[in-house]
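Re: beginner question about structure tokens

> Can someone show what the tokenized structure looks like for a real chain? I only ever see the sequence side.

Sure, here's an example I had lying around. Input first:
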Amino acid sequence: MSEENNNNTINHGNISPVVIQDEMKSCYLDYAMSVIVGRALPDVRDGMKPVHRRVLYAMDSLNNYHNKPFLKSARVVGDIIGKYHPHGDSAVYGAIVRLAQDFSMRYPLVDGQGNFGSIDGDNAAAMRYTEIRMKKLSEEMLADLDKETVDWNPNYDDSLVEPSVLPTKIPNLLINGSSGIAVGMATNIPPHNLSEIMNGLLLLIDQPTASIEDLMRIIPGPDFPTAGTIHGTEGIRSAYHTGKGVLQIRAKIDVEHNAKKDRDSIVITELPYQVNKAKLIERIAELVNEKELTGISDIRDESSREGIRVVIDLKKGEIATVIINKLYKATPLQTSFGIIFLSIVNGSPRILNIKEQLLFFIDHRREIVIRRTVYELKKAKERAHILEGLKIAVENIDAIVELVKKSEGPHQAKAQLMSVYSLSDIQAQAILDMRLQRLTGLERDKIIKDYNDIMREIARLEEILGNENLITDIIRTEFREVLENYGDKRRTEIIAKADEIQMEDLVKNEDVIVTITHKGYVKRMQMDTYRTQKRGGTGVKGADGADDDFYTSIFIANTHSTLFVFTDKGQVFSIKVYNIPEGNRTTKGRNIVNLIQLPPGETVKNIMIAPSDVEGKFLMIATERGIVKKSELSEYKNIRQSGLTAIKIVDGDNLLSVKITDGKKDVLLCSSSGKIIRFAETDARPLGRVSQGVKGIELSDDEKIIGMEIIDDSVEILSVTSQGYGKRTSVSEYRKQSRGGKGILAMRLNEKNGDIIDIKPVTDKDDLMIISDKGQVIRTKISGISLMGRTTQGVRLIKLKEGESVVAVEKIVDPDEDIEVVEGAASAGTPSEGGGNETPPAATEE
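And the corresponding structure tokens:
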């Protein structure tokens, strides 16, 4: 019917003519948005669909916590559908069941007691038989809900309110994933490892400009509850960069040989995510019965409480790898998982990359922390207001008691209190409500104390709201607590395809000696390059270069280690050891400027092994002018190819030394005049990466720092001079002082022994490497160096030719002992993580 004819047949009054096409379009769009926003897609902030959010909120309202008794599932379901989710009880119970299944959820949010189904596809028992309560992890998603941290919406009949989003500390969207089909769109977010996601969040808090590639070094890919193996990384890379990608997931398969029967068995111990074990076995049996898969004699399901174990016995003479490849192709032992990072952002569906999802969660936590602080400040001010009135009351207690006694009633008493003492209605009522016991001396003192305490709390909260850095610190602390309390190891292994294998996978994992010269030439050599010599030997030729070039650094590292390279102007670069060219004792090596983007005019001052675990570790940096700075090592985890600023260097100063420390030892600084200062690391508070630092020692204009070491009471201090003299001194002779002092004498200097050039903390088990400016290298045992007093001049350590002088001293591990694996050493002789099995041949003395 045409619009004109339609209008002629419509009666006037409350009925308005509409075009049927427009009405259908409008209604369908309303329905579509309702499904998209209110049912099928998760919110990017808490990772929840409305039904899951209502489940947790209802359990919270029932005090159904992890440390309380279980409640019948039917009891909780009834509360949910009666108050918040007016849909079928089977839909609500189905959502609860999935939240309790450890093979569906990487981190289950519901603790179930009873039959909640199995990986074989068995259904859960009816809700009248099962019991539930919240997991401790899910309680973290509701923390601070009562502190006005989120907005509230009316429920379906406007009789109650429910949270629009949960104030979660847990990035649930990524750790548990989500899947759903809306109108014209779908989401499929895989679960991830909580430890990796929390470390990714910490990285973005410290370095908001970090790239997705930086994040992928921390978050290599999804982590499924059923483990399995992700085959290939291209799908992960695509999903993390674009929001869409496809993964290939394989079962974990081992081959066992039965020597008695002389045949192999294929054993399946882990399944791809969401694969039904019973149907998988049925599929394999079906292929065998249809003769499409030959070579299999028997299939058994030996799974138990300890885990999955499906055994496929092969016929005699069958090759296991051939059968396995056929199984991958024809059965769900290999499945595809299509990733779509689609979620609700500000009320609209949006596809996000991995970094955007993490940033939205950080923004959510920032809003929660701010709103929580505002609420706590409001409550603190309300409490302060009452305590202010009580304080006035206890200060005028006799007069107020007399005033109340003479009043005809409470209303008159309140009015007179407000009039005489300029109190508010709330304050006056609080005074009238005081119990007699609060008039005792101790209670009066407690009121004054409470008032002073609440005023300090108000100042603290106002400081937080006025300082963005303090808010960020709170978020960082909360993330670290979540990481510490709930973090676990990755389950799913990621294996690169043949065309995705990185160079590192092809490099042999071994310890090597790395050297760098005055002119910046670097090389790596085998561990047996140098032999141990007696103290006072002449050494061996160390480098085949010009007479004016010489070694300035020598240390042990693993080929797979990452090295930090610090310049004299405070820049830091990173480089893999396997990228350093290999050479021998007489080769020159390659200039460091060809391996890193070294700025013009800068020189390398320190190279150290970067530890893999940065939690609780610090970098202690010292400059030639006596400035020290302690920074958290986590600020240096991801270094760009162009480098990062490690410390702000002022004109006339240069970076001297960098050490990795746990922040609990002492710092030792030695000046060129032979004075040493020792102070606790705690005297230097942690500072930001680009800050300048604080004064470590008082220097005169012609003095500079020649060495910094991190020590405890278990070592001795080795001092070495430019003329090859040295001595060991007990660390107890260097008393602890306050940071910034002038220090005490470390060694008596004269024309014979020259200037002091370096200090080292040593033990009898250490070996020493001494390098001269003519390229001579001697390796000697520390046990052969005399233990002498603090003010002595030392003994000869190396015979020098005329005009020759010592320029570098490095400590290495005793070659007669097993090499101990130590992370983060900033000096010679400390092997890197992962090495240590290969030791040099027994040393020979000359």
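Each token stands for a local structural state, so reading them left to right follows the chain. The chain has four domains: 48-167, 252-332, 363-484, 503-812.
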